[in-house]
């Protein structure tokens, strides 16, 4: 990591002077927001990017600039259908990728939902845990054999992991009253723990996994939030910031939000980010579980990086999806 980047760094700044020619990269969730920009930046620097999305018609229209920048930068871009909330679709996508036999240098698990009303995936899992974690858990484990020695996995998590640790006794809110942000927090903690456990399993061949927080960005992710909810949340954040002598919170642009995924995937040193949580293009400090932390403070909760906790989640996830992964 010879150059220092930060919260305001963009994808183009992070990738300045970087050639990705010959690299093959998978990005989930390329029909909106961060997924589009992540795919665009990588393809613009010469990578062959495979984008997956639930709504292919929407993704086709949304990725016109990705294709244009790929053509200009020497990269390529293709789309594959995938519904993370339907394990049959996940397995079919993995089968399609495995059938091609073409390896990946980087997988960015970017897709996700936030603060959805209470509901279930096609397989009966709580919507956010099932979509954000279990869908990616099955997809990535099923294509792990396609990841070259030295490849990386980047799981897009969130500072929202601070809302809640995973609940391995009641992952589907069968006994717990449903709260959309608690559910979101559980799923985002799961994204981090999955990266921790995946990193342990594959680091011997140089495959490293990390989780990242992109920052606060206005994207389609907020579509399930009620009117006024964002404003109320911001008011609380800014009140706390003022009390700490900090400036008001500012949203990142989409290129700034996608920068940490790109940085962790192709720029940062693998040994530095493997098994870690990153934000603002740096590895985050660990904050003890009993120490106060705000939504916009730096740091990752200790429970999200706990190796034993990661193994327990892995075992629970295998039980839930009915598959075993080494």
UniProtKB/TrEMBL annotation:
GO terms for molecular function: oxidoreductase activity. Keywords: Oxidoreductase. It holds the Pfam family adh_short. InterPro entries: NAD(P)-bd_dom_sf (IPR036291), SDR_fam (IPR002347). Belongs to the short-chain dehydrogenases/reductases (SDR) family. This is Probable oxidoreductase.
């Amino acid at each position: 990591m010879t150059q220092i980047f930060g919260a305001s760094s963009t994808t183009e700044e992070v990738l300045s002077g970087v050639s990705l020619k010959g690299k093959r990269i998978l990005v989930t969730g390329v029909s909106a927001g961060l997924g589009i920009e992540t795919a665009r930046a990588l393809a613009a620097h010469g990578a062959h990017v495979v984008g997956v999305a639930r709504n292919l018609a929407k993704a086709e229209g949304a990725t016109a600039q990705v294709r244009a920048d790929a053509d200009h930068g020497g990269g390529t871009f293709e789309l594959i259908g995938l519904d993370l909330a339907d394990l049959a679709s996940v397995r079919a996508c993995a089968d399609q990728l495995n059938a091609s036999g073409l390896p990946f240098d980087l997988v960015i698990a970017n897709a996700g939902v936030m603060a959805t009303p209470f509901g279930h995936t096609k397989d009966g899992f709580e919507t956010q845990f099932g979509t954000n974690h279990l869908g990616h858990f099955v997809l990535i484990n099923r294509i792990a054999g396609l990841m070259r020695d030295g490849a990386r996995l980047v799981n897009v998590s969130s500072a929202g992991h601070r809302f809640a640790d995973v609940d391995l006794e009641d992952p589907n809110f069968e006994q717990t009253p449903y709260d959309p942000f608690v559910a979101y927090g559980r799923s985002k903690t799961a994204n981090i723990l999955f990266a921790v456990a995946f990193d342990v399993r594959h680091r011997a061949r140089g495959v490293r996994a990390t989780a990242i927080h992109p920052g606060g960005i206005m994207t389609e992710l907020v579509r399930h939030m009620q009117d006024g909810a964002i404003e109320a949340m911001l008011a609380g954040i800014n009140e706390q910031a003022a009390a700490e002598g900090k400036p008001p919170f500012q949203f990142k642009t989409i290129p700034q939000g996608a920068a940490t995924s790109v940085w962790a995937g192709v720029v940062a040193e693998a040994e530095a980010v493997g098994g870690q949580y990153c934000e603002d293009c740096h590895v985050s400090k660990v904050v003890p579980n009993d120490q106060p932390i705000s939504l916009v403070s730096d740091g990752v909760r200790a429970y999200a990086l706990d190796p034993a906790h990661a193994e327990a989640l892995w075992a629970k996830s295998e039980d839930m999806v009915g598959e075993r992964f080494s």
